């Protein structure tokens, strides 16, 4: 088919444009396609992991209801091994720590809490585990170990509790000035209606402040 001069010029322009930019356009299309498929694949993988982790979490619920520490710890360990980054594994480990502590197994409780602080992806779960671990250290008269744990950052929502525990640890060490300052800072971060505000005030008053 013959083309008139104007059509031929348009065709030549298209060819020239394609020679200059065609490779980059193709690359961009391929990258976009791969990114889209990767996004879809990642979403599927995440849903699959969540489903499988939920299945493994079922024995955790059963163990809590039956107060079976051994089964609970084993179920939490299975989640830790299979899906360490899932919220289910962190929550199961927190439950295992609580039940183990209630049964006097402080070592297992500390191990479970330590696992959460090292592996949980949710800042709130890490904070809960860190504060509980510090409390266990304090209960064992390990004030320095408790303070070392409390020196690590926690989610801002837990700052008041962290500072209160810091005050407790400093008080145990005989650092009344440091404890007083920590309690005051803790109280400043609480709402006046907060359940622990009155108790923290009592602690401040007991130190002569």
Automatic annotation (TrEMBL):
Annotated TM spans: 21-39
The entry's keywords: Cell membrane, Chaperone, Membrane, Transmembrane, Transmembrane helix
Residue span, Ancillary SecYEG translocon subunit/Cell division coordinator CpoB TPR domain: 15-208
GO molecular function, one term: protein-containing complex binding
Localization of this protein: Cell membrane
Membrane-topology annotation of the record: Single-pass type II membrane protein
InterPro entries: SecYEG/CpoB_TPR, TPR-like_helical_dom_sf, YfgM
GO cellular component: plasma membrane
Family: Belongs to the YfgM family.
UniProt-listed PANTHER family: ANCILLARY SECYEG TRANSLOCON SUBUNIT (PTHR38035:SF1), UPF0070 PROTEIN YFGM (PTHR38035)
Protein known as: Ancillary SecYEG translocon subunit
